[in-house]
Amino acid sequence: MDERHVVTCFLEHDGKVMILRRSERVGTYQHKWAGVSGYIEDDSSTVERAWTEIKEEAGLDRNDVELVQEGRALEVVDAELGRTWIVHPFRFRVLRPEKIMIDWEHTEAKWVAPEDIGRHETVPKLLEAWQRVAP
Fold first, then answer.
1. Could you report how far apart the first and last alpha carbons of the chain are, in Å?
2. Quick one: DSSP state of residue 133?
3. Are 113 and 18 in contact (CB under 8 A)?
4. DSSP secondary structure string, 59-116?
5. Which of 16, 31, 44, 71 is the one with CA 20 to 30 A from 119?
6. Would you say 58 and 47 are in contact if contact means Cβ atoms under 8 Å apart?
7. From CA 51, how far away is CA 9, in angstroms rounded?
8. Cβ pair 133, 68 in contact under 8 A
9. 3-class SS at 2?
10. Taking a C-beta distance cutoff of 8 angstroms, is the pair 106, 19 a contact?
């Protein structure tokens, strides 16, 4: 089974967490709700990848957010894809939510109460990833 390491970044503001609906243009889990996420390249650390993805997918710079917590990695087996994801979760506090601009990877973003994450059709184990960084 193919193994891939990814980051999933949860952006929070005023007690809410931003989730994003993946577009039809991404390779996996189209139309599912997710956090800001991306593959970890061989030459970058997990936290560096998290910062990169936040810039690319939400348009936020390092002075627009602050790292709150890095969680323990979570293994997510997707037998249908023949892939095991090793998800490295992060929680960031958004200092300037008005600057958020999502890119082509998502069609919409919304703020939800953390307990409502599981009420959405999400990428596999998104709620469990959140629980690894939840306050």
1. 33
2. T
3. no
4. ---TTTEEEEEEPPPEEEEETTTTEEEEEEEEEEEES-GGG----TTEEEEEEE-GGG
5. 71
6. no
7. 9
8. yes
9. strand
10. no
- Using one digit for the tens of pLDDT, what is the confidence trace for 33-67? 999 999 998 788 999 999 999 999 999 999 999 99
**Token digits of residue 119:** 């009420």
Residues 109 and 116: beta-carbon distance below 8 Å: no
Query: CB–CB of 46/53 below 8 Å?
Result: no
Q: 2-131 — its CATH code?
A: 3.90.79.10
Containing 26, the helix (H) or strand (E) segment is: none
Contacts of 95 (CB under 8 A, 6+ apart): 63, 64, 65, 66
- In tens, the pLDDT along 64-121 reads 999 999 999 999 999 999 999 999 999 999 999 999 999 999 999 999 999 999 999 9
What pTM was computed for the model?
A: 0.96
**Location of structure tokens 């998104």:** 126
Residues in contact with 51: Cβ distance below 8 Å, sequence separation at least 6, in sequence order = 62
